[in-house]
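Chain particulars:
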Amino acid sequence: MKIEVEKSAFLSALGIAVRGASTRSAVQTLAGVMLRVDDGELELQATDLELGVRIKTEATAERDGSAVVPGRLLLDVVRSLPSERASLEYRSSQSDVEVISGSARFHLRTLPADEFPRLPEAGDANVVKLPGQAFVETVNRVARAASRDETRPHLTGVLVSASERQLRMVATDSYRLSVKETTLEEPVQGSLEANVPARTLQELGRIASSEGADEISIASLEHQVIFKLGSVGLSSRLVEGRFPNYQQLLPESFEHELRVSTPELLEVVRRIRLLAQKNAPLRMSFSDGTLDVSAQTPDIGEASESLPVPFKGEALEIGFNPEFLREGLESAEAEEVTLKLISPLRPGLIEASDDGAGSFLYLVMPIRLNV
């Protein structure tokens, strides 16, 4: 393998590929990026066995071949090169890749190529194509509600479904539930339902935003899902286990429904949560026309703030995890939200409309308050 590359384009592609490389696997090769030149075309590949990235980039190829190089080291080397052009050559006799740019010369030891996993191919699987911007915006509003607890793997994913003119994503960690439905301008061909790791979708969102992808193609296999956007391919295992029936978690009716200003309530929550430390709840006390938001942490301090709300009826005090509440309000991305409440021990709901482009629901479990 011998190629010549333009530094900025190669650096951009390498930065994307490295996202798939492992940082903690006992298999050393998984920390590498494979440089593969086939028919004069350069492709970079990386995987940690859960997430795989492949990206094609421009290069002048003198000789086909492949080599696996430590990914983050190569990224740092390329970033530091003094010239806008560089050559990379795999030298099998020395088991290294020689990088030359200007007067700078590097020799990077390669990793065992025979241990590098083969990334899955879409083959003849059905492919669903979705608009890139709508897909990324939906991911960004839902994915952080997924669980990070690997002992409950079925909750670490986002349930992605698409059919006709609707895209829906659902995530839950059992303490909160986020549902975003997006109305598409054009109906999709075919349908999709897959429980995709939240990390995969977040990486996909970052890549799509940096690449400006107009369209994302999705092929769902038996145990894998493959995303394609422009020159980038992203493959991922699907989450094992059945995703909860989230519709059963949504209460059928609520005692109180209040329209409130999202920016106003969000700013209050952000301020008062500073004094909700050491797992202290954020208290929300509703009375006629008023909401008092307060927090208290022993040995640290307390805070409170009031704002007008259209509340009527018997006073209600409920407590929430301050970070969960903040994230729900941030994810609503609307000027106004509807707060729906039942009682101090029943979940609360944040609901937002996207002006005909879809809807957003965020259910959050309360924290029992000590009087």
User: Anything to note?
Assistant: The first strand starts at residue 2 and ends at 6. The CA atoms of residues 139 and 202 lie 7 Å apart. The radius of gyration is 25 Å.
